[in-house]
Design goal:
By secondary structure, the protein is an alpha+beta fold. The protein has one domain (2-174). The protein is built from four helices and ten strands, in the order H-E-E-H-E-E-E-E-H-E-H-E-E-E. The chain has helices at residues 2-16, 36-43, 99-106, 114-120; strands at 25-26, 29-30, 48-49, 53-60, 72-80, 86-93, 110-113, 144-148, 153-160, 167-174. The chain has an eight-stranded antiparallel beta sheet with strand order 3-4-5-6-10-9-8-7, with helices on both faces. The chain has a two-stranded antiparallel ribbon with strand order 1-2. The relative contact order is 0.21. The model is unreliable at 1-21 and 127-137 (pLDDT under 50).
Length: 175
């Protein structure tokens, strides 16, 4: 189900987003430039491969960074465009990962709701997707998120922990 929600968000963003001249590189994968073969060289054989996606499991955020060993990822989804290049990357960290775990990589971004983030991209497309298994999935437009527009990165949060004040990360999107 996580993959379905992520896929929906990708389609929403791809429809509304204006591409930046320089894309962000994650683990050597550069959006709009890296191919499926480049991604496989960087990450190995995917757990599942589809025409429009590569799915990886049990990765770490950045194995080259000592701090990255502490940020484990349940799922990594690379969305493939019609030209065969990687259009977006979704990282779904393991449960309990907070915004503070990702600060060494990103610093401080701009906090807002997911609805406001979509509005920064242009027209807001609200609704549901029909993949996978033809089930409808919704994204909470009032969910808290943090945006790093200079790098085209979005952190979507599940909720804020009442004790620590940290935000639990639902996923990281490189768009």
């Amino acid at each position: 189900m996580k993959a379905a929600v992520l896929l929906l968000i990708c389609f929403m963003l791809m429809g509304a987003a204006v591409r930046a001249p320089e894309s962000y590189s994650w683990r050597g994968i550069q959006l709009q430039k890296s191919t499926v073969d480049d991604a496989k060289k960087a990450l190995g054989t995917p757990a599942r491969e589809y025409r429009e996606q590569l799915l990886y499991e049990n990765q770490v955020f950045d194995p080259a960074d000592a701090n990255g060993q502490n940020v484990r990822l349940n799922t990594v989804i690379l969305n493939i465009g019609v030209k065969g290049t990687i259009e977006s990357i979704f990282l779904s960290p393991e449960w309990g990962t907070t915004d503070q775990d990702l600060r060494p990589f990103f610093g401080e971004g701009k906090r807002m709701t997911y609805r406001k983030f979509l509005a920064t991209l242009g027209e807001i497309k609200i609704g549901a997707g029909t993949r996978p298994d033809e089930k409808l999935h919704y994204v909470d437009l009032d969910a808290a998120c943090e945006v790093f527009p200079q790098h085209r990165i979005l952190l979507l949060y599940q909720r804020q922990d009442v004790v620590s004040g940290n935000y639990l990360v639902q996923f990281v999107l490189f768009y």
